[in-house]
Write a structure and sequence with these properties.
About 70% of the residues lie in helices and about 0% in strands. The protein contains 9 helices and no strands.
Length: about 210
């Protein structure tokens, strides 16, 4: 009795593209960029290499798209406050979703933020910077104090500073092992609450005092 090779699954354009991206994200997370070939990604996705190039062009372009999809995850917006769901609950849930995304994409994330000793990549940095701005908008809207576009400059600045804390904390957890996931969660939740409740008012008072003396 003869056996035949498994037939490739027929997928539409968007499904096939998403499948290739998922395979690339997994391989880039497990290995460094240089050791991942387009042939390996194609084999993992069950497609010919030419199809991969058709969808994404070069390995470099595919990698950048992996980073773009990574920083768009999770796609759900930060939930808003509601009766019984104060800012503490909202931020705790948001941080937990972010940490889960990092746990699933550890290698790619560490490479993207330069924590693997590869240095900062200008194109990756531009993608991350745009993602940071979107995250700032979502966090401002979660506070339900200002529309993101009308938020004071000081508020945007301190939340951007919080983004730096979050990236550093993620490396302390995922790469150096000096924080556990639970400790990282506590640091980021309490850090955000402290920034909003204590740091931001102090920054605003300092700005008011400076303007009065000039």
């Amino acid at each position: 009795m003869s056996s035949s090779a498994p037939r490739r699954q027929r997928l539409d354009h968007d499904e096939r593209r998403a499948q290739i991206l998922a395979c690339a994200r997994r391989l880039f997370s497990e290995r460094n960029y240089a050791s991942v070939s387009t042939l390996a990604i194609a084999r993992e996705a069950g497609v010919v290499r030419g199809l991969l190039h058709h969808y994404f062009g070069t390995k470099r372009e595919l990698y950048l798209e992996v980073v773009r999809t990574l920083v768009r995850m999770p796609s759900n917006p930060v939930p808003l406050q509601s009766p019984g769901r104060g800012i503490e609950v909202v931020i705790s849930e948001s941080v937990e979703r972010w940490l889960e995304m990092l746990a699933r994409n550890r290698g790619t994330w560490l490479a993207a933020i330069g924590a693997r000793g590869l240095g900062r990549d200008p194109e990756v940095e531009a993608i991350l910077d745009a993602a940071r701005e979107r995250a700032v908008d979502r966090l401002i809207e979660a506070l339900q104090t200002y529309e993101a576009a009308q938020a004071p400059a000081e508020l945007r600045a301190v939340i951007r500073a919080y983004a730096g804390l979050a990236e550093t904390a993620s490396a302390e957890w995922l790469q150096r092992g000096r924080l556990s996931r639970e400790q990282t969660h506590a640091l980021l939740v309490q850090g955000f609450l402290s920034i909003v409740r204590d740091v931001l008012p102090a920054v605003q008072r300092a700005g008011t005092s400076e303007r009065r003396t000039t």
